[in-house]
Amino acid sequence: MPDIPSSFDQLQTPCFLVDVDIVKKNAEKMQERCKKLGVKLRPHMKTHKTTEAGEILTNGTKQRIVVSTLNEAEFFADNGFDDILYAFPLTEDKINRCKALTKRLNQFHVMTDSFYGIDILEKSPPHNGHWSVYLKVDCGYGRAGVVWNDPESIKLAQRIANSSSIDFQGIYTHEGNSYDSKGSKQIKEKGQTNVERLVEFRKKLEVSGITCKEYGVGSTPTCNQADQYMAQVTEIHPGNYVFNDAQQVSVGSCTEDDIACRVATRIVGHYPHRNQMLIDCGFLGLSEAGKEQLPGGYCTFQGHPNLK
Fold this sequence. Notes:
There is one protein chain. This protein is globular. The protein has helices spanning 20-37, 51-57, 70-78, 95-104, 115-123, 151-162, 184-207, 220-224, 246-251; strands at 15-18, 40-41, 63-67, 82-89, 108-112, 131-138, 146-147, 166-174, 214-218, 235-236, 261-264, 267-271, 276-279. The chain is 32% helix and 20% strand.
């Protein structure tokens, strides 16, 4: 491992810088928020992908996390984490790796939103005979998940609940539509709508004789701005809050003081005739997702809001 530079001047650029004190502060605020609401926290690991941040976000327990890839699941399992939810619709090519994780961990959960997913799980049960399964629900984001008010969604839940090789854990929705918000008020409105829709779906399941052990919602904006309505669910699963970023500030999720990360880059060229400078960092080192969403283009320059 290379020596850690003793000053900024010695940094190899571009590089990613993290203020660990702010990471800890962000984690403590979310943990305290969950405590006040009476809900469990299942932090998402996909933003940081590190054991160090994972321990901070789980308050040292290394329990109850969510991941978006099997590489992430295996990495955290290798490093002593347990109660891992693989929160992505399952396909047959992933079954053997999931079975291995089920055998290694005390609790490993998978997710589905289709009859196809149930078919492949039933065709290849794990060593203990039962998969632990969450049903993904679309409460308005329009990406993955069964539609919250579609009668066919109830039929899929019934199939899961009645399966002899599945232990139905509950329902899960990602509130990705919160990223379209402009300010705290809109974030809370969208968050409340998502919670109300998930709760309504859960009640329909209960009428059909299906019990949900867990019913969770999550996105960093809605969880950063969580209000009392969030107490209606059992768990939340934000992830980006570990660092927060310029996008979170732009939608009203947090303030600049909550951002725990920076990308350091050097000016490598200056071209006065066209009023431009060249830096040694492109959008792959920043975030293409920020294009045309931030005042500075792909990013914002700390202390220099006029640059873009």
